[in-house]
């Protein structure tokens, strides 16, 4: 596994490159150039920086984002100094890609190196059967910072066939084969939804990052 997982690093510990965990809830970027980050995620900075809206990157990506609802609103931060970003006090986990790719749920993206290539793609093997599941792919060499709702686990799919709830799977290696596993008998026991239970199935050499939640719940209306 060439992707490096930095989810359990001591507070303030410096990592190779310019991404570091200030603590488990806050990312520190040593900026000397530019970086892409979730809009509104800046909580503080030291130095000289400019913040600009980052578009979809061409009409093709714009249409994919509009049609699928996948992706994350981004800002491009330029300058020099220390940039601190966070999102709703979610846990933050770092990956360093080395000429490789990961598939990410767009809502879990916090920041990534601007030179990484991004695209929106249908999840392999989970198209119509999964209701049209789309994710964001990031490829190249550089840093990626993701957020999770609760402390996650990273599973090595090379050890055994791996299955995950589609709402709990945050990211996985693009080298994995992905399919859909449907369970009728366990529909009332697996996941938070109702009816037929469906899990994503992973095989091959690579990892899957699973968060300790299916996402925040929406409180019922009282009026």
UniProtKB/TrEMBL annotation:
SUPFAM superfamilies, per the entry: TRAP-like (SSF51219)
Pfam family, one: AIM24
Domain of life (superkingdom): Bacteria
InterPro entries on file: AIM24 (IPR002838), AIM24_sf (IPR036983), Trp_RNA-bd_attenuator-like_dom (IPR016031)
PANTHER family: ALTERED INHERITANCE OF MITOCHONDRIA PROTEIN 24, MITOCHONDRIAL
Protein name: AIM24 family protein
Species this protein is from: Actinomadura litoris
